[in-house]
Design a protein that fits this description.
The complex is a heterodimer of chains A (about 250) and B (about 270).
Chain A: E1 6-15, E2 18-28, E3 33-38, H1 44-51, E4 59-64, E5 67-68, H2 76-80, E6 83-86, H3 98-109, H4 114-127, H5 143-156, E7 161-165, H6 173-188, E8 193-196, H7 200-206, E9 209-214, E10 217-222, H8 224-229, H9 234-245
Parallel strand pairs in A: 3-8, 3-9, 6-7, 7-8
Antiparallel strand pairs in A: 1-2, 1-4, 4-5, 9-10
Helix pairs in contact in A: 3-4, 3-5, 4-5, 5-6
Chain B: H1 9-53, H2 63-85, H3 88-102, H4 109-135, H5 138-146, H6 151-166, H7 168-181, H8 193-204, H9 207-237, H10 249-253
The chains are: A alpha/beta (about 250), B mainly alpha (about 270).
Bound molecules: adenosine-5'-triphosphate and magnesium ion.
Adenosine-5'-triphosphate binds near residues 38, 40, 41, 43 and 44 of chain A.
Chain lengths: ~250, ~270
């Protein structure tokens, strides 16, 4: 088995007295596509935000290539450059064009030259079908277009793993497909991804592992086939049946 | 003067304009100069204050960093409260006569004027800038962090350009206020427009006529500045629409990329 990219060990996060994550353990290997499902408030977003330290965990370890990134001496910004994140609300830079959104990290964080950054940006913008819009500002784009740019921006950093937090939840239904198609194409290329989603059918075909979260713990995990067709935990059954009925 | 002062209001105004035009213009030039330089430095002071005031602290930071940042924030609060809470005219007196009476340093009145206007504007801009920084939605800060930007880079490339754009109307407001409020600097004998207006008024007992001219000049200056700032805002906002770039992907893969190389990053 190849070396793990991320090992999450006994991860905990509490906001005051509210224990949002309790003892989370899992490991990400290169090429893994992990979908995370669970009820609203179960801690899915918090888990992703802890993984790239947008929230600081209150306990446990996150080992990146064997090194605990929660050590005080660790350079969090440098680590984040290797872990991409795509948000529900896109979070594009409004003062920059589509092209600049994609190149800024490459030139300023990775310190590559501008030509290299623009070529890379064009490559990924083409992949997500947004190359004609390089001169547009985020405010001039539809939700689906913004999300595709956000994915291209994350890809430009050539991350080891890409985190998605409900990438289609803020989109009008007719735009969901275009974004899911982009994520599918990444899956085919072997991109390592962790995807929090409420799109059950999508989670089922795109991922090779599914985690069901319930009240801050991993209540069940397994292959999508196991989890969706033959859930073991009563909570998983309940969640899935409620979802399938809607 | 050889010619006699006319009787009518219009006549008097034209007479003063003709004979003292250069004096008024000298005053107007100095007024504009102090207002522009004072606003510029005031903005810089305000930006720095606003940036310091919004430095995030986390439990993970070292004790030294927390102590230094807290002390800096406290000091800036005192500064802001003092300069917003006292009239600029009083500040000018304190600053100028403070040096004259208690030190051997003799600032020129113009320099004293610029310093007072800058510090005063800075106190207002500090609060404005803080608001401007908070007005940029937090999601963009997270977006920047997520691609590995440091707090400093996030500020420089993402937050400040938008914060400054958002507070442009207030910067314009401050410039206009400063053009008018430099008039209080006549108390320390800065030879700006108000000072010349009073001098000419006293020569012929033509107070109303002289200040008619003075007000026309102030109005011209403020109006011109507000229009210019509008144009600048438009320029910063850029085009309302965008051009679609060529979609010929074959051209791209063959190395014939056809997309414009944009200007270097917005200089601040
Ligand atoms: N900054 C915060 N401060 C306090 N409590 C928070 C904070 N962020 C999240 N929480 C709490 O943590 C819990 C888990 O939230 P989280 O956003 O991780 O859920 P989620 O599984 O992503 O839900 P959803 O499906 O609605 O996105 C919630 O009870 C929420 O109120
Ligand atoms: Mg969530």
């Amino acid at each position: 088995m190849s070396k793990a990219i991320l090992e999450i060990k006994h991860l905990q996060k509490s906001f005051g007295k509210n224990n949002v994550l309790r003892d989370i353990d899992f490991t990400i290997y290169p090429g893994d596509i992990t979908s995370i499902i669970g009820a609203s408030g179960s801690g899915k977003s918090t888990l992703l935000r802890c993984i790239n330290v947008l929230e600081r965990p209150t306990g446990g370890e996150i080992l990146h290539n064997g090194k605990n990134i929660l050590d005080k001496s660790n350079n969090v910004a440098a680590y984040r450059a290797k872990v991409g994140m795509v948000f529900q609300s896109f979070n594009l830079f409004d003062n920059m064009t589509v092209l600049e959104n994609c190149t800024i990290g490459v030139t300023k964080v990775l310190k590559k030259d501008k030509k290299y950054a623009e070529d890379l940006a064009m490559k990924y913008l083409t992949q997500v079908g947004m190359s004609p819009y390089i001169n547009a500002k985020p405010k001039q784009l539809s939700g689906g277009q913004k999300q595709r740019v956000a994915i291209a921006r994350a890809l430009c950093m050539q991350p080891e793993v890409l985190l998605f937090d409900e990438p289609t939840s803020a989109l009008d239904p007719e735009m969901v497909g275009e974004v899911l198609d982009v994520i599918r194409s990444l899956a085919e290329e072997g991109m390592t991804m962790i995807i929090v989603t409420h799109e059950m059918a999508f989670a089922r075909d795109v991922s090779n592992r599914t985690i069901f979260m319930d009240k801050g713990v991993i209540a069940e995990e397994g292959t999508p086939q196991q989890l969706f067709t033959n859930p073991q935990n009563p909570r998983t059954k309940e969640f899935l049946s409620r979802f399938m009925n809607n | 003067m050889t010619s006699v002062l006319p009787e009518s209001f219009i006549g008097k105004v034209l007479y003063l304009a003709e004979h003292y035009g250069p004096a008024y213009l000298e005053g107007a030039k100095l007024t504009l100069f102090i207002a522009l330089v004072g606003t510029l430095f005031g903005c810089l002071i305000g930006f720095v204050c606003g940036i310091v005031q919004t430095i995030p602290l986390s439990k993970n930071d070292s004790f030294l960093k927390i102590a230094v940042v807290k002390l800096a924030k406290w000091t800036l609060n005192v500064y802001v409260e003092f300069f917003r809470g006292t009239p600029m005219m009083v500040q000018a007196m304190l600053f100028y006569y403070g040096f004259i009476q208690y030190t051997s340093y003799r600032p020129t009145t113009t320099l004293a004027g610029i310093v007072v206007v800058s510090i005063n504007t800075g106190a207002y801009m500090a609060e404005t800038m803080r608001g401007g920084i908070f007005s940029v939605d937090k999601g963009q800060t997270e977006g920047a962090k997520a691609i590995g930007m440091t707090h400093f880079q996030t500020m420089l490339y993402v937050i400040l350009p938008q914060a400054i754009r958002n507070i442009m109307p207030q910067i314009g407001n401050n410039l206009i206020i400063n053009i008018k409020d430099t008039s209080v600097l006549s108390v320390i004998s800065v030879c700006e427009l108000m000072y010349h207006g009073k001098a000419v008024a006293g020569t012929y007992y033509t107070t109303f006529e002289s200040f008619t001219i003075v007000s026309i000049i102030y109005l011209t200056l403020t109006f011109a500045c507000s229009r210019l700032l509008r144009l600048l805002e438009k320029h910063i906002d850029g085009a309302d629409s965008y051009d679609l770039a060529t979609t010929d992907t074959l051209a791209h893969t063959s190395g014939m990329t056809n997309y414009p190389h944009k200007r270097e990053e917005d200089e601040l």
